[in-house]
Amino acid sequence: MDMTDKDLSQTEDRMLEALFAEARSARVADPSEALMQAILGDAAEALEASRPVPVAAARPGFLAGLWAALGGVAGVSGLATAAAVGVWFGVAPPAGLDGLSTAIWGESVSVSIFSADDILGLEG
Amino acid sequence: MTLAARLPETNSPDAAPDGALLVAFANGDMGAARVLAARLTPRVLGQATRMLGGDRAEAEDVAQDAMMRLWKIAPDWRQGEAQVTTWLYRVVANLCTDRLRRRRRTVDFDAVAEPEDGRPGPAEQMQEGARMTALRDALAALPDRQAQAVALRHLEGLSNPEIAEVMEISVEAVESLTARGKRALAALLAGRKDELGYGHD
After folding, report:
1. What pLDDT, in 10s, does the model give residues A39-94?
2. Does residue B186 lie within any of the structural domains?
3. Is residue B56 situated within a structural domain?
4. Which of B96, B113, B98 is nearest to B49 (CA)?
5. A86, A119, B102, B163: which has the highest count of C-beta atoms within 10 A?
6. Considering its fold, how many domains does chain B have in total?
7. Per-residue pLDDT tens digits for A17-42
């Protein structure tokens, strides 16, 4: 044994060694079927608990409700087109619209953010 | 230094390292849990049984508890940082000293180690049972860290560097704990040599 045993008498050391040897060699029966089942049941439970709640199974949230209210893909694609056209008119109003918008909204001052006035080539 | 057995490299889950199986389990693979449970439960149960003096019911509780903790840390397990077996040695040692401490509070060491009745029985078996009970009660009377170091060294047969890894302390600290633990055990059992079958010779 190691040097740390020098404080023990030979008899004490022999007694302890015999006790340890007996404990080491004692046969431990295999885990019972019930124990294995319980352990695997715990594993399944732990797995279930750690799994994030899938998005599809969640109750519809605010965005999903809004999406449905706007008519889903069909509705929103129309909305997107309308918004794009609005942006288009804002950037480069067609000639015919100029007078109309002035008549409706009053005089407006346009400040071009582009170097050329006719960047989109709409005016011939 | 690793405590894991060297395993042949094949694609079979039976040959996969513990850490890889644990990660597979965390990702939802119950088959990996079955392989791990079959591989690890016998050793966890063995360690608990030896530390608890052969109390089977209590050892099974500890084994189930230790495996439950393993399942729960699976999502956070980082492969390569630690061996699953090292981690389990630590968990089982801690769970066992928790139980031994409770036992120490509720029962008197001298009373428990006495054979419980005087009826004749298979003499050898009774004495073996009594010796294991006496060893457990003596371990229960030690400070936790001493009891753990002595049990890992002398009941599990781990080397001092392995125990240092399990207990997260230095090898010198392990040597000191096992030396003090053995002296304390010898003192606790000194008066019982004859009774335990280790009389003068």
Report:
1. 999 999 999 998 766 655 556 667 776 667 776 666 666 666 666 666 665 666 56
2. yes
3. yes
4. B96
5. B163
6. 1
7. 999 999 999 888 899 999 999 999 99
Q: Among A124, A51, A50, A120, which residue's Cα sits nearest to residue A91? A: A120
Task: State the amino acid at position B70 in one-letter form.
Answer: L
Residue B27 is assigned to a structural domain of this protein:
yes
Instruction: Enter the pTM of the model.
Output: 0.69
- Contact A22/B186, CB-based, under 8 Å? no
Give the one of A28, A43, A46 whose C-beta lies nearest to B49's C-beta: A28
Query: Do residues B175 and B160 make contact, with C-beta atoms less than 8 angstroms apart?
Result: yes
Give the A window 17-76 contacts with B, CB below 8 Å.
18-20, 22-24, 26, 28-32, 35-36, 38-40, 42-44, 46-47, 50-51
Complex ipTM tops 0.85? no
Q: What distance in Å separates the CA atoms of residue B89 and residue B161, rounded to the nearest whole number?
A: 14
Is B6 a domain residue?
A: no
- Give the number of A-B residue pairs with CB atoms closer than 8 Å: 116
Domain with B95, as residue range(s), is 13-192
